UniProtKB/TrEMBL annotation:
Name of the featured protein: DUF523 domain-containing protein
Top-level taxon of the source organism: Bacteria
Pfam families for this protein: 2-thiour_desulf
InterPro entries in the record: 2-thiour_desulf (IPR007553)
Amino acid sequence: MRKVLVSGCLQGRALRYNATYVPLSSLIWDRWSTEGRLVRFCPEVAVGFPVPRPPAEIVGGTAGDVLAGIARVEEVNGADVTSLFRLAARRALDRAVEAGVALAVLVDGSPTCGSSVIYDGSFTGRSVPGRGVAAEELLRHGIPVFHEGQLQQAAAMLAAMEESERSAG
Ligand code: SF4
């Protein structure tokens, strides 16, 4: 049975920068949980960020630029936390590979976990299309990433993967 990497703050653990969690009410989630598929992981806490912590945003480029060393991640107070965010992305990939996950469901909007939108680096609450650094790292290594509003699509892909593995014998 294939596992699913999920943001540690999704449905129950208050790990976000503001010490909250992201609630989720879904039969798919409940089923995955009962089946033991969920691999909960918070990349930021895994590299030592405290809860709560200052909000951070990608500044001067995309998540890909952060991985390439040509954009930064900064906290609202101006602190450069780029290297820790890159390490957090690497840890997420390591955890995903170690657990053999089929895909990931991560919280959108985060500079780490976002997969369709992130904040624009101005700390004014404006969001733009984009990905967080860990989501980018996972995708680059062939692990599909969905956000918490895409559980049905994620479940469909998971079912298709398992079906194809069954047929391959
Ligand atoms: S890094 Fe990801 S898992 Fe951790 S609190 Fe932020 S959104 Fe949640």
